[in-house]
Amino acid sequence: MSDKVLCVVGTRPEAIKMSPVIRALRQADGLGCRVLVTGQHREMLDQTLGILGIEPDIDLALMQRGQSLASLTARLLEALDQMLRAERPRVVLAQGDTTTVMCAALACFYLHIPFGHIEAGLRTFDTANPFPEEANRVIATRLATWHFAPTQAAVNNLLREGVPASAITLTGNTGIDAVLETPAIELPDALSDARGKRIILVTLHRRENLGDVLYQICQALICLAERNPGIQIIFPVHPNPGVRDLVYPLLGRLANVSLCDPLDYRLFVAVMRRAYLVISDSGGIQEEAPACGVPVLVLREKTERPEAIELGVARLTGTAPASIIADTQRLLDDPALHAAMAHAVLPYGDGRSAGRIVDVLARYFETRQRTGEPG
Fold first, then answer.
1. 260 in Cβ contact with 296 (< 8 Å)
2. What is the CATH code of the structural domain delimited by 189-341?
3. Cβ contacts of residue 221 below 8 Å, gap of 6+?
4. Radius of gyration of the chain from Cα atoms?
5. Do 5-173+349-371 and 189-341 share a fold?
6. Most buried residue, 82, 191, 192, 333, by most Cβ within 10 Å?
7. Catalytic residue among 205, 273, 300, 315
8. Exactly one of 147, 238, 300, 305 is catalytic; which is it?
9. Contact 2/34 with Cβ under 8 angstroms?
């Protein structure tokens, strides 16, 4: 029987990190999958699915402008419950820590459908950082059947929380599968201003970094751009009005700052590989940049991905302008420090994570078939 697995995707990062799993499931004998998108983030999700060649089988199209977490959660849970009752998948998979993932886990729990949590066990142990993701992944852990952990530290977190070792698989992170599979491409003419300059790639979108915090971060970027004419800051601006409406007026006047719409995934990886360093509050970029041998300054107070920091290829800079300026300037001025941070490492996986996840599910279905138990 094919299409035993339903993969639930809500945002661009989930699409990127689920794509290797979806391909592996569709290539596996006797498994297959259907893809459900919630549309938690619409434009960026659709762009990424198209680039990755994934066509959803089901689209809940739930995104609304200005949606609150409460309204999104209520609509997600109701829609997922109805769809799961209609589809009756044997297994559901979701990746990460978004509201989509938390609601998928809860909907499966209510309907007694086994749920696999990909990227399980990440923790900051602070429900305010990142918000609401830390709470989302803790809830998903309590409800999951399988916990696909990206690192040994994540495994240890799960064990400390009482998750049975038999339910945990150390797989690596599927985001590393995705970035290692991405072919090299040339930068387009639109980014030609960056040629011959040291590129600083910037991404910002975290809820806790909006408002005055984002304003202060932009002030740091202005100082760096004015102080260092030999750099080119490339800043794909998140479509959230809370980001765009502040970033464009502040940074748009600077010749060595290139503001643009979010880049498609392959182009984003090409820019990241070409970058001298990355400044970001993204979780996924903390994994991808080290794999590409690019230093990353993390604009957060806490991180659930400590491995790259422990290896010295990432730095937890925080959001204070003085810290951002100082850490960036040191990397620009000290070639030895940059070289020490600029070697490729793979603390988050070896590129074979999706296969390990599929192996676990294949064994599950084989056991059910052998024993005559319902899947």
1. no
2. 3.40.50.2000
3. 202, 233, 235, 251, 257, 279, 324
4. 21
5. yes
6. 191
7. 205
8. 238
9. no
238 an active-site residue?
yes
Phi and psi angles of residue 26, each rounded to the nearest 5 degrees, phi first: -70, -20
Catalytic residue, chosen from 198, 207, 352, 368, is 207
Short-list 260, 262, 270, CA closest to 190: 260
Give catalytic status of residue 205 as yes or no.
Answer: yes
Q: Where are the domains of the chain?
A: 5-173+349-371, 189-341
Instruction: Tell me whether residue 97 is one of the annotated catalytic residues.
Output: yes
117 part of the active site: no
Q: How many residues does the chain have?
A: 375
Known active-site residue 207: yes
> Tens digit of pLDDT for each residue in 124-172?
999 998 999 999 999 999 999 999 999 999 999 999 999 999 999 999 9
Q: Does the annotation count 186 as an active-site position?
A: no
In Å, how far are 14, 123, 135, 221, 330 from 17, measured between CA atoms? 5, 18, 20, 29, 32
Catalytic-labelled residue, pool 12, 90, 117, 119 = 119
Which one of the listed residues 14, 97, 134, 327 is annotated catalytic?
Answer: 97
Architecture (CATH level 2) of domain 5-173+349-371? 3-Layer(aba) Sandwich (3.40)
The answer to whether the pTM exceeds 0.90 is yes
